[in-house]
Design goal:
- By secondary structure, the protein is α+β, with helices and mostly antiparallel strands.
- It has helices at residues 11-31, 37-50, 95-108; strands at 55-65, 68-79, 83-88, 112-117, 128-132.
- It has three helices and five strands.
- A five-stranded mixed sheet has the order 1-2-3-4-5.
- Helix 1 packs across helix 2.
- The longest helix has 21 residues, at 11-31.
């Protein structure tokens, strides 16, 4: 079995990623843990907009099997058309969250995704997961 080898994530995508991390940290510092997920998503959207980052909220994506659409899903956020962002309010990030974002990256053919768990005392590093393909 051969292993897939990916090229490094492009610098412009990494730049977007750093900006998004800054936005999430700002939201978490202001709100802290304890709210429901939609509140953090809304606040993150406000922060992204304030920093001039384009995003799509609840972006529908299709899932294909052998070239046939077998379902749809919605991304929490698609930032600058290059970065998938999934927001969570969980006790801890789990493997299922990583698998979810990995599947979103495969479906969208994008390379980078972030999971932010806002239900932590400090967002970085415990409430953050980076997934790169």
């Amino acid at each position: 079995m051969t292993e897939t080898v990916f090229e490094p994530i492009p610098a412009e995508v990494e730049w977007v990623g750093r900006r998004v991390i800054g936005c999430a940290i700002a939201v978490h510092r202001a709100l802290g843990p304890g709210y429901k997920e939609p509140i953090y998503v809304e606040a993150l959207c406000l922060e992204l907009d304030a920093r001039g980052l384009r995003f799509e909220r609840e972006k529908p994506i299709t899932v294909q099997y052998n070239g046939t659409i077998v379902g749809t899903h919605r991304l929490d956020l698609l930032v600058e058309r290059v970065l998938v962002v999934e927001c969570k309010v969980a006790e801890a990030l789990q493997n299922v969250h990583t698998r979810q974002v990995t599947s979103y990256l495969k479906a969208t053919k994008l390379r980078l995704g972030f999971i932010f768990n806002f239900n932590v005392d400090v967002l970085m590093p415990g409430g953050f997961k980076r997934i790169a393909l």
